[in-house]
Request: fold
Amino acid sequence: MLRDSVYFTAHDATMASADHPASEHGSYPEKSQPTVAVLDERRRAALAEIDNAPFSWFHIKVCLVAGVGFFTDAYDIFAINIAATMLGYVYGKGGALSTWQSTGVKVATPVGNLVGQLVFGWLADRLGRKRMYGVELMIMIIATFGQALSGQAPAVGIIGALIVWRFIMGVGIGGDYPLSAIISSEFAATRSRGRLMTAVFAFQGWGQFAAAIIGIIVVSAYKDEILDSPYPAAKPVDYCWRLLIGLGCVPGLIALYFRLTIPETPRFTMDVERNVTQASKDIENVVTTGTYVVDEDAPIQRVKAPRASWADFRAYFSHWENRKVIIGTAYSWFALDIAFYGLGLNNSVILTAINFGNPSGNKTSSLYVYQNLKNICIGNLVLSVAGLIPGYWVSFLLIDTWGRKPIQLMGFSVLTVLFIIMGFAYDKLTATPSVTDAFVFLYCLTNFFQNFGPNTTTFVIPGEAFPTRYRSTAHGISAASGKLGAVVSQLGFGQLINIGGTNKFVKHIMEIFSFFMLTGIFSTLLIPETKQKTLEDLSNEEQRGYITGFLGAVSLSVWDSK
Reply:
């Protein structure tokens, strides 16, 4: 169990011993108020130094190291949007995967995300951000490589193998959410924290964009082989999906070293490990020069301060002012991901349903296979450029001035209206090719206002609104609630879409999405505005007197033996 104390320097220990002689066991009296007051003041001063730190190269490094992870996350999650069509040509009956096969390969990753977010969120609060950072990336790299090498066998079907690998990959991706959010949040200055976290999250848009670009490249590279092969051109298309999926591990490999060497956040060192001395050194060195040195022989002293435990967790969230925040962050993310993943993992299906860019001619020809795959990649590229990427960066520009809560309220409100229009006017908007362009425009707007709206803010706010000892756990709970929404959406989408005929239920799915966007407006009212407030102010805990006394003797150990 982590020490339930804060550490101070040997000089402070000498001061304590001079004013209050040590007991026979070497510990100092609990009521050494002058020394406790000094430590308490030092803690607040150190936190203020982080909050007021100028933007530096180290902040850029944190953004890039965390952002590359999100780039990889998004690439790996949304590449299946294109790869599922390829898998259908290679392993499906009639050139397509069955409903359950398609649902399985798409939903496996969100299920893994849910597990990873809960487990890694808790472990990051229990063991430390640094200890877990990089572990989740290794899981992602191994699982991505495993997918690309999966094969068909008499005892094991490739779809089943892919589902297992995508679940494992999802666990790693899920772990990346709380870790990257909390590390960027705890290193950031108050005035730019929203922009730093948004910049990290915005890499997700570039990941989706890259998946579409790589899809176009591999399909174009195998054009001649596809056209020369008999329908459904299984061999060249098999190469295509393996390259598309497998290349997803490359950015992760590049970022792995930097993740393993990133320093522990000063807030964790100070408030969970309770090592004020090391945290002060980190603040002086890491944020300014990027160096990170741990003195293993530095003497430490335990003092009384809030520590994480199940009893304390229940006590903290038993207060409505704290409980309403996690209800608000969790449900808002759940409602958002119902639509975000319902659309994001099925862009190809929806583009096909509205006959946008569908090739004409014989559907059982190799030419049709090539044109269909190319058009799906281009369609996903258009959606990324026209809606997803701009939405992230408009959020980046406004999140520290306008605020998180107004952006989320506006986003949910606009999305409610857009989905109502797309659902109830679906038949008219898809009746002719000319009006179909209007539907595609509205579809791009939904992508834009998801990212200039709740998709960004549901990631940012849980990384700010809770105390350090529960910040990662609470972010993991909120993110896992979102992935529960993604799972529900994907299972529902797969079972509902063909009611009344192939893709005939799309309009009603849009109407369902509008209802969940409406509920997101009300859950947003439960969350606080976090802009320009310190993480400690947002924790709803009194910071003066946070350190309340001494508990134990000098020790060199960081971990209790319990």
Summary: Confidence is low (pLDDT under 50) at residues 1-34, 553-562. The two ends are 6 Å apart (CA to CA). The CA atoms of residues 30 and 550 lie 4 Å apart. The first strand starts at residue 303 and ends at 304.
